[in-house]
Amino acid sequence: MSRRPATPKPTISIVGAGRLATFLAAALRDAGFTITEIVARDSPRSLRSARTLAARVGAQPVTASSAALDATLLWLCVPDREIRAAASALARNLTANRAAAKKGGSRFAFHSSGALLSRELAPLRKAGTAVASVHPLMTFVAGAHPSLAGVPFALEGDPAATRVARRIVGEIGGESFLLPASRKAAYHAWATMTSPLLLAFLVTLEETARAAGLTPHDARRKSLPIIRQTLANYERLGPARSFSGPLVRGDAETVAKHLAVLEKHAGASKVYVALAQAALRGLPVKNRDGLSRLLRVR
Ligand SMILES: NC(=O)c1ccc[n+]([C@@H]2O[C@H](COP(=O)([O-])OP(=O)(O)OC[C@H]3O[C@@H](n4cnc5c(N)ncnc54)[C@H](OP(=O)(O)O)[C@@H]3O)[C@@H](O)[C@H]2O)c1
Fold first, then answer.
1. Do 162 and 272 have their domain in common?
2. Percent of the chain clearing pLDDT 90 (strictly above)
C-alpha cells in the first residue's frame, strides 16, 4: 500500500523578539520547526534583541526591508498597535520580491493579538498570503516558562491559514479552536479576566491586607495556600460548590463590618462591592435581599 508522504513542516519567520516571540520561537524550534528569520525594527535596541533570539533558535536577525521572507509562514509577535505598520512594511518587501520573481515568498501570515482580527494583516493578504489571528490563552512574561500542553489557541481568519495554524498549534502541544470574528472582542474581554485582571484582583487583595497590618510580601505568602486550594476546588468541584464565606452563609452583619473598614480604602472597597455583587448574580448566596440592600450601588 502506498503512503502519501507527510507534508513537510512549514518554515517560519518570527516578527519581533519580545515576550511572546522569545517563548514561541523556542517552542517551535523544540517541536522541529525551522525558524529562518527574526524580523526586527531598524533600531539598535530592536536588532540587539533580534540577534539574541536569532542566535538561540538558529535564525538570521533581519529587518522588514532586508528580510528574505522566504519562510512559508510569517508570524507577527509585535504589539497590537504595531501589527498594521509591520504588515505594511513586510508586504512591501514581499511584493517587491515576488515581482522580481526571486522566490515564491511567504504564503501564510499570523498575528497573535487576542483583540484584533486577522484583517489587520490586510496588506499581507493583498500581497498574496492567507492570514489568520492565532491567540494563545496563556501569559508569557520574562522569567516564566509555561507549558503549552493543552493551552487553548483561538483561531480566526482565512480557512487556508487557520488550517496551517491548527496543525502547528497541535505540534507544539496546544489545542486550537475557531472563533467567529464577531466574537473576538468578547473573547478578549474574557482572556483579560483570566490573567491580567486576576492580577489586578490580587494587588487589591494585598491592599486590603495592608489595612490588617500585613506587608504585600506577607500578604502574598499568607494568601497563597487558600488561593491555591480555591483554584483546585474550582477545577474539581466548580464555582458553586467551592463557595464559602459570609455571603454563602448570608451573614450581612459581617459584610457590613467589611464595608465599614474599607471606607478608608476607596479603591479596594469598590472592588469588594463589585465582586460581592457578582457573587449575588452567579453564586449560591443566602439572605439575598439583605445583602442586596447592603451592596446596592454605594
Ligand atoms: N505576552 C503575552 O502574554 C501574550 C499572550 C498572548 C498574546 N500576546 C500577543 O503577542 C503580541 C506581542 O506581545 P508581547 O507581550 O510579546 O509584546 P512585547 O514583549 O512588547 O514584544 C513586542 C516585540 O515586537 C517588536 N516590535 C515592535 N514593533 C515592531 C515592528 N514594527 N517590526 C518588528 N518588530 C517590532 C518589539 O521590539 P522593539 O520595541 O525593540 O522594536 C518587541 O521585540 C501582541 O499582539 C500580544 O497581544 C502576548
1. no
2. 92
Q: What is the pLDDT of residues 60-72, one digit of tens each?
A: 999 999 999 999 9
- Closest CA to ligand 1's atom 34: 16
Q: Are 76 and 110 in contact (CB under 8 A)?
A: yes
Asked whether 139 lines ligand 1 (CB < 6 A), one says yes
Which ligand 1 atom lies nearest to the CA of residue 138? 5
| Residues 212, 122 share a domain | no
Is residue 122 classed as helix, strand or coil in its secondary structure? helix
- Look at ligand 1, atom 21, and give the residue with the nearest C-alpha: 18
Q: pLDDT value at position 254?
A: 98
Work out the average pLDDT over 38-55.
97
Contact in structure between 39 and 16 (CB atoms under 8 Å): yes
Q: For residue 295, which of 264, 265, 234, 262 has the smallest C-alpha distance?
A: 262
Q: Tell the residue nearest (CA) to atom 45 of ligand 1.
A: 113
Closest C-alpha to ligand 1, atom 46:
113
The pLDDT of 26-46, averaged and rounded, is: 97
* Domain range for 259: 196-295
Evaluate: CB of 41 within 6 angstroms of ligand 1: yes
Q: Per the structure block, which three cell numbers stand in for 39?
A: 524580523
The letter for the amino acid at 64 is A
Domain co-membership, 280 together with 235:
yes
The protein residue with its alpha carbon nearest to ligand 1, atom 5, reads: 139
- What would the pLDDT profile of 179-233 be if each residue is shown by its tens digit? 999 999 999 999 999 999 999 999 999 999 999 999 999 999 999 999 999 999 9
Q: Which of these three, 124, 152, 183, is where a domain ends?
A: 183
**Predicted local confidence at residue 103, as pLDDT:** 62
Other C-beta atoms closer than 10 Å to the C-beta of 139 total 15
Nearest atom within ligand 1 for CA of residue 111:
45
Tell whether pTM > 0.85.
Answer: yes
Q: What is the position in ligand 1's atom list of the atom closest to the CA of 137?
A: 6
Q: For position 104, what pLDDT does the model report? A: 76
